[in-house]
């Protein structure tokens, strides 16, 4: 065996030995390139870096001072000192490293400092959101709406996370844990802009904030029920086409999960979805996380279903009119464009699409002959309303024309009756008995 062959084998062996093992703790991922190239800004922090992935970006350095001010505020309300907090993070360093997909290049001191400052920033952010009295007089986040919105956007990003157990551990150093759990604190931060039920307790294992927000959305049906019913990957017609086929749309009641979709007795029931400036980033990062980590593609399936319903702004109008969509963007064209732009490179396997049963039922309903007859009547009614009753004057003209036509028909009928009566009278008078 040549010396060169031995060197190659040794090099490969060394590389194999240096490959980090995949830990069960792994949960914070780089967004796959096939998602990122569609819209990179949806996965990129605007004002604040959390964790190691975007640490070196110059544009995000301005918030490092804000983090330190939040750290000072946090230290004023806990029982432990900075040394004790640092020791806690240092003791969890190995577990923290295992949470990230990449083999982190930061040394121990650098990593511990970064995780401590970033995690305390998030905890203090949630505390100040829940307790406004703890906000500074000129709080650099809550006193500026644009900054508050940008931070909220950044907290939702998959690449901008720290492990959830670190957040809980630091929060439990405060006296506030007696009155409100960190689960509750997190829910209060997200509840006004997202949709979902509050997690009752800490029994569910949550990996990070993106995982927590996803857990808020999980539907009420048990795992596996929907996927076992899936026979084939079958999408549905647009909202307008379904409406023309006799399908009714109704907003769900209560605080049910956004992902609960029910089709029964010709009515499709869906929960209200408010479409606003961070909706796209939210859905894109949830989809990326599901594709990287979760077997059940709940959010991905919902986005596919929504994309099927919306082809044009007219579909958006229908869903808005029944309360299923709420438009905070301004233009229905923008809403339609946003919804149609999210669904790319996601679920293709029918076993991963969780709404196959509802889609099959909707398609079967709309293909029914009776429904086709109703659809034809609906189309004629729409055309009549569009062409002849689009405004009061055209409607009055049509009514007047119809009345005139009826009177003309009546007059013609009366004339025929008079003629017939006259002929009959002459016939009887001329007959000899």
Describe this structure in words.
The chain is mainly alpha-helical and 433 residues long. Helix content is 55%, strand content 4%. Strands 1-3-2 form a 3-stranded mixed beta sheet, with helices on one face. Helix 4 (82-91) crosses helix 6 (108-130) and helix 13 packs across helix 14 (298-309). The longest helix has 38 residues, at 392-429. Residues 222-230 have low confidence and may be disordered.
In short:
55% of the residues lie in helices and 4% in strands. The chain has helices at 3-18, 33-36, 64-75, 82-91, 93-98, 108-130, 145-155, 164-171, 182-190, 209-217, 225-229, 239-244, 279-293, 298-309, 313-321, 332-342, 356-367, 369-388, 392-429; strands at 248-251, 261-264, 267-270, 273-275, 325-327. The strands form two sheets. Strands 1-3-2 form a three-stranded mixed sheet, with helices on one face.
List the helices and strands and how they pair.
Blueprint: H1 3-18, H2 33-36, H3 64-75, H4 82-91, H5 93-98, H6 108-130, H7 145-155, H8 164-171, H9 182-190, H10 209-217, H11 225-229, H12 239-244, E1 248-251, E2 261-264, E3 267-270, E4 273-275, H13 279-293, H14 298-309, H15 313-321, E5 325-327, H16 332-342, H17 356-367, H18 369-388, H19 392-429
Parallel strand pairs: 1-3, 4-5
Antiparallel strand pairs: 2-3
Question: Could you give a short account of the major beta sheet?
Answer: 3 strands, mixed
Share of helix, binned: 40-55%
Shape: elongated
Global mean pLDDT: 85
Subunit organisation of the chains: single chain
Beta fraction: under 5%
**Rg calc:** 32 Å
> Structural class, judged by helices and strands?
mainly alpha
Order of helices and strands: HHHHHHHHHHHHEEEEHHHEHHHH
- The total strand number stands at 5
Gap between N and C termini, in Å? 138 Å
Number of helical elements: 19
Identify low-pLDDT runs.
222-230
Biggest sheet: strands side by side, in what order? Answer: 1-3-2
